[in-house]
């Protein structure tokens, strides 16, 4: 009977430990993504100091804001490793006022879900499940854009 219960539980998706490991992998990948964006923003800003273009400076600011948003999301995923939907709810307060577009977060989240480096196959699969759960909850809770 105990073996049947274990089989049934495995069929329902990643275990709690796998979800925690998946959330940690996803969070680490988001931090790496944020670091790459922050470096790109800093390089772009340094290069643009030689030019006089507000539009390009705005892009550097947007990249820096996106890096900050990803760090906030990564932190919430670590704080709420067992509940990606709760992590999404807690993340809303950060990126929304930064004028970050939801598709930008989606692209970064997808990239992070695809890049976890681990030999733990269950954790890699769970990272994808956590990313999907997080994304669905974030999209549902995201404040509507004016005119949308």
Write up what this structure looks like.
- By secondary structure, the protein is mainly α.
- The protein has one domain.
- It has helices at 2-11, 16-48, 54-79, 84-91, 102-114, 121-141.
- Residues 5-9 have low confidence and may be disordered.
Which keywords apply here?
single chain, 0% strand, mainly alpha, 148 residues, 75% helix
Secondary structure elements and pairings:
Layout (H helix, E strand, L loop, with lengths): L1 H10 L4 H33 L5 H26 L4 H8 L10 H13 L6 H21 L7
How many strand elements? 0
Helix content percent band: over 70%
Largest sheet: none
Portion in strands: under 5%
pLDDT < 50 stretches: 5-9
In short:
It is built from six helices and no strands. By secondary structure, it is mainly alpha-helical.
